[in-house]
Amino acid sequence: MEYDWPAVRESLSRITVISNPGNEPVSLFGEGDGLRCVGIGTDAAVFQTNLAPSYAFKVYAEDKTSKIGTEAEVYGILGESSYFSTCFSATDHYLVLSYEEGPTLFDCLLQGIHVPQQAIADVEEARKYVLEKGLNPRDIHLKNILLQDGRAKIIDVSEYVLPGDDQRWEHLKNAYEEYYHLLDGRPVPSWILEAIRKWYHQRRRYFSSFEEFKKFVLKYMTIKK
Question: What are the record keywords, sorted (predicted)?
């Protein structure tokens, strides 16, 4: 299939991505012909275009472009794997990745879509694979995992070169095992999920442990039913 790459580059050049403080998602300015934003993170936004629909373009914020080369290197080390997207190339402003279908686990909670145990097991296997490749599987959370036919695919590997365990996946898995049965099939309002996300990032200021944080969230959600 032939793609109109000059038109894709021209459309992407019209988009400006600006990072925000406090671990908040990036802001977008501008509009490119045929572009559709399919994901927003704290460093970048991801677009799909009808000019090349099988690809995704991860456009970094202007002050985060130093991460592009690093993420491309991580994809190179990971190689071909069913657990991750494929990176085809990198420019000064964006990565060209395989476009992946499916809702994120965050979307699944919003829409009441069942998240099977198999998806959790897939992430566990993906983490083992990352460790075998000499990388560090960090920053794995609800918005970085897609559900595809009951299986998981991880779509952000940008922090795998950083040291330390941020425990995000361990905490998410623990919450799934203990509490997901209370939510399964029930849509969760976006404002509740966003509130929990913000509390989680500030939990060390207000809670002595993750267990205390979980109890607070459970009590809050029980009150708001």
Answer: Kinase, Serine/threonine-protein kinase, Transferase
- Dihedral sign computed on CA atoms, order 68, 73, 79, 83: negative
Spatial separation of the C-alpha atoms in residues 126 and 8, rounded to whole Å: 32
On whether the CB atoms of residues 30 and 62 are closer than 8 A, the answer is no
Percent of the chain predicted with pLDDT > 90 = 72
* pLDDT higher than 70, residue 70: yes
Residues in CB range of 68: below 8 A, 6 or more apart: 60, 90, 91, 92, 93, 94, 95
**Hey, how many other C-beta atoms are within 10 angstroms of the C-beta on 139?**
18
204 within 8 A of 171, measured Cβ to Cβ = no
Mind listing the domains of the chain with CATH numbers?
5-98 (3.30.200.20), 105-223 (1.10.510)
- Say what the pLDDT of residue 37 is: 94
